[in-house]
């Protein structure tokens, strides 16, 4: 398999799939350019080698051609960060895209308009009538899959090599993220630096694990984390359960949780996860105390109480100090740490304490030589908020893609290039 470091792009035209799906304000100014910055090393390498880059991305979820989702708004920032004047094609499939990509010279870059203007990118029919019959739906799906192949084939025809650097969409089998790879031979498809770094970080944690390995799973619901928890139970030494999920476990064990967030239909599941942890010799670490609030608000009255004795009408919105100490002790004794999801409602300043304590313990463990991987939207927001992102070994740019990768799923964007 080719690697971005070893591939010589001299004289090559690269179709580079990036994830420039950045947040924009109402005046179409970029409010966070992290995703653009993340793909710059790959683009720079291609141009520095004397290659040219045809850059493809999606932005938002347009239902068709819609100026609100135009990549034109981010063109200036891409040019600025890349240090060259990037050209723009006002469509990804039309005449302009074909002509401009054909005319591209070594050292030049072209940004194509939003790939998701076309339903074919996702390969799913749009605008099906509510009363469409099953046959009509099946026919529309089949037609869109065929369109997807055509779209992938056309995008591939612009280039001599395919580079996928869009980890954020690696869990999607889209025209530009996966299907396109079929139109390049093994020597002409590769991962960009970002994609390679993301894969390396996850595989270091899951396959090449330094022990003890501790995963901290937070967030609101068990239901959204079941598959990850189950997959991790065969891999970790310690599994720390935090955040809103805590109370489903506490209630299942017979505790009083007041009106803390709880999934009553997942109590049996919580018990079976506790059982599985035992069978796998995994140390399942649950909170022992909570910072309880008398309402779901930053200004609520608060008290620290045992996690299984939360008064009626109070709810646990973060972990308490004893739990912070307990979690920190486990984290500090670890050589690999994976953190996904806050320990409490970190959006409220008064309930950030637990997440901050976990973040700082991971920083200390990392300074002591542990490998730490932080990922999944809200934990990344946490480490940014606490100013400790650069003290982690790796902070993933992936949301859904990262979670599916940790769940043990094969991601189409990865498989399309390396075959698994
Ligand atoms: P997730 O997207 O599943 O990772 O969940 C993140 C969300 O969980 C954040 O918005 C937190 O506010 C929320 N959360 C964490 N702890 C609690 C809690 N104890 N009660 C309610 N929501 C919580």
Name the CATH superfamily assignment of the largest domain: Phosphoglycerate kinase, N-terminal domain
User: How is the CATH topology of the largest domain named?
Assistant: Rossmann fold
Low-confidence stretches: none
Mean of pLDDT: 96
- How large is the share of residues in beta strands? 15-25%
Distance between the termini: 12 Å
Report on the architecture of this protein:
It is a single chain. The protein has 420 residues and is of the alpha/beta class. The protein has two domains: 184 residues, Phosphoglycerate kinase, N-terminal domain (Rossmann fold, 3-Layer(aba) Sandwich); 198 residues, Rossmann fold. It contains 14 helices and 17 strands. The strands form four sheets. A six-stranded parallel beta sheet has the order 3-4-2-1-5-6, with helices on both faces. Strand 11 and strand 12 form a beta hairpin. The mean pLDDT is 96. Adenosine monophosphate (AMP) binds next to strand 14. The site of adenosine monophosphate has 16 residues, from strand 14.
């Amino acid at each position: 398999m080719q690697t971005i470091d070893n591939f010589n792009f001299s004289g090559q035209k690269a179709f580079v799939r990036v994830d420039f799906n950045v947040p924009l304000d109402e005046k179409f100014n970029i409010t966070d350019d992290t995703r653009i910055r993340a793909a710059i090393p790959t683009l720079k390498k291609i141009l520095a080698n004397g290659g040219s880059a045809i850059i493809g991305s999606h932005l938002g979820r347009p239902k068709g051609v819609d100026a609100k989702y135009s990549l034109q708004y981010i063109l200036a920032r891409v040019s600025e960060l890349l240090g060259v004047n990037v050209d723009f094609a006002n469509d990804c499939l039309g005449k302009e895209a074909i002509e401009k990509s054909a005319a591209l010279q070594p050292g030049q870059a072209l940004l194509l308009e939003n790939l998701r203007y076309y339903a074919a990118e996702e390969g799913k029919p749009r605008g099906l009538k509510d009363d469409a019959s099953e046959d009509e739906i099946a026919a529309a799906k089949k037609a869109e899959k065929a369109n997807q192949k055509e779209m992938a084939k056309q995008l591939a025809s612009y280039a001599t090599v395919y580079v996928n650097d869009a980890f954020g969409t690696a869990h999607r089998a889209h025209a530009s993220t996966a299907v396109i790879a079929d139109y390049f031979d093994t020597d002409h498809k590769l991962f960009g630096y970002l994609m390679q770094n993301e894969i390396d970080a996850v595989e270091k944690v899951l396959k090449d694990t330094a022990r003890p390995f501790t995963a901290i799973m937070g967030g609101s619901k068990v239901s959204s984390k079941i598959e990850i928890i189950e997959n991790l139970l065969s891999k970790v030494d310690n599994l720390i359960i935090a955040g809103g999920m805590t109370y489903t476990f506490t209630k299942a064990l017979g505790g009083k949780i007041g009106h803390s967030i709880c999934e009553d239909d997942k109590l049996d599941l919580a018990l079976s996860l506790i059982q599985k942890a035992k069978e796998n010799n995994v140390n399942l670490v649950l909170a022992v105390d909570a910072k309880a609030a008398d309402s779901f608000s930053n200004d609520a009255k608060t008290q620290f109480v045992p996690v299984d004795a939360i008064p009626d009408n109070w709810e646990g919105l973060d972990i308490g100090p004893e739990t912070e100490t307990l979690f920190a002790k486990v984290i500090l004794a670890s050589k690999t740490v994976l953190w996904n999801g806050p320990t409490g409602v970190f959006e409220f300043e008064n309930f950030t304490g637990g997440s901050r304590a976990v973040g700082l313990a991971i920083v200390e463990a990392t300074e002591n030589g542990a490998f730490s991987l932080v990922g999944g939207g809200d934990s990344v927001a946490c480490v940014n908020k606490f100013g400790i992102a650069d003290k982690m070994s790796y902070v993933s740019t992936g949301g859904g893609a990262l979670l599916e990768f940790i769940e043990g799923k094969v991601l189409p964007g990865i498989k399309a290039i390396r075959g698994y």
